[in-house]
């Protein structure tokens, strides 16, 4: 399978072995390769990880075998008669980010990368640190102040260096990217590097394989767009392959304290709106300056997606309601349920809905 990077801004084609985190013009990379039609016969059902779907991934070799820790294959649990939960915190590092990190670090190992840096609100950094530790890649993670101490402890336990940066999540990213520019380290970032989305799109493949269909309503949290874009890519693939007749109703979730996409849609903007993030328990989606914002908005407008904003005061009650039924998730994840309830408040009962449980509760008890 021939795979290239293509700049989303100027269209320049680059080999995927490049260490450049983005194009010289400033545009981010996307992957260019010929994707076979989705066919369940191409799923390796003897492989119990996301790599059972490797026929639909642009992998250069079998390096993934030394990287995988059995990520993916998470159960779908009925919560009530209208709502299903995809238990994506049933992962090696207790978050859905393992889907993307496993593929990205497989790529890094395959092309001989020895040192990486990454910025994160905690979960992605933890995933990258874990998979780097597994294959002997040196790793340095930058997290913003206020990140759960337990997430920082996990990053360090995997052998990575963790730097806590004062200020906002967006400032943390700026500090990390400055190090990439100054020292030439490989930027193993879940937003910049398109290999990450090749992992998160397996979220959709799994849902289809498990249910033999796609639910009518899929709620996806939206900060930097890691799961959102991967999910949309997966759904588009199923539609293009004739496996499902049309896109389901995808509802994007933002925090009311940081909602650049919701505000952009209200104003009809083609770029994320300029917002000043306020403190929120939904730290995982508190991204004021999403780097793939234009790409994300194009998908939102193309499919006329709704965006629901989580009322801040509903996050803790939502977390308590989930925990009372045995589901102990982190605050950002509880926000997904709070957003679903808000959507039902606005639109009435919404049967055949699915939300992700993307992070475990023990990671955010602080």
From the structure above, extract its key features.
3 domains, single chain, 366 residues, Rossmann fold, TrpB-like_PALP_sf, globular, six-stranded mixed beta sheet, lyase, 12 helices, alpha/beta, four-stranded parallel beta sheet, 16% strand
Structural overview:
The protein is of the alpha/beta class and 366 residues long. It has 3 domains: 1-34; 76-95 and 195-364, 3-Layer(aba) Sandwich (Rossmann fold); 97-187, Rossmann fold, CATH 3.40.50.1100. It has 12 helices and 13 strands. The strands form 3 sheets. The protein has a 6-stranded mixed β-sheet with strand order 4-5-13-10-11-12. A 4-stranded parallel β-sheet has the order 8-7-6-9, sandwiched between helices. Helix 2 (97-110) packs parallel to helix 3. The longest helix is centred in the C-terminal third of the chain and has 17 residues, at 331-347. The chain is globular. The chain starts with a strand and ends in a 10-residue tail after the last strand.
